[in-house]
Amino acid sequence: MVQAHGTCHGGAIFASADAAFGLAGSSGQHPAVAQQCKIKYLRPVIIGDKLTVGIARGSESGRADVYDGTG
């Protein structure tokens, strides 16, 4: 979704990250759901930019897994 000034809407970027986290959380030994998600927008995504989302398991504690993402 592109806004009038040619940048991608932050909600669309968030949805891409959320989908990647969902896939990562479902790929483990037990199904997982998101409890919290924070995003820091470092710069705008403009038309023609390629957006790649990377997810890695950061840590594990009891029933909680922490995933770190980049994009």
Automatic annotation (TrEMBL):
Pfam family of the protein (one): 4HBT
Record key words, sorted: Hydrolase
GO molecular function, one term: acyl-CoA hydrolase activity
Record-given protein name: Hotdog fold thioesterase
Organism: Tabrizicola piscis
Keyword presence, Disulfide bond: no
SUPFAM superfamilies reported in the protein's UniProt record: Thioesterase/thiol ester dehydrase-isomerase
Domain Thioesterase, chain residue ranges per copy: 5-53
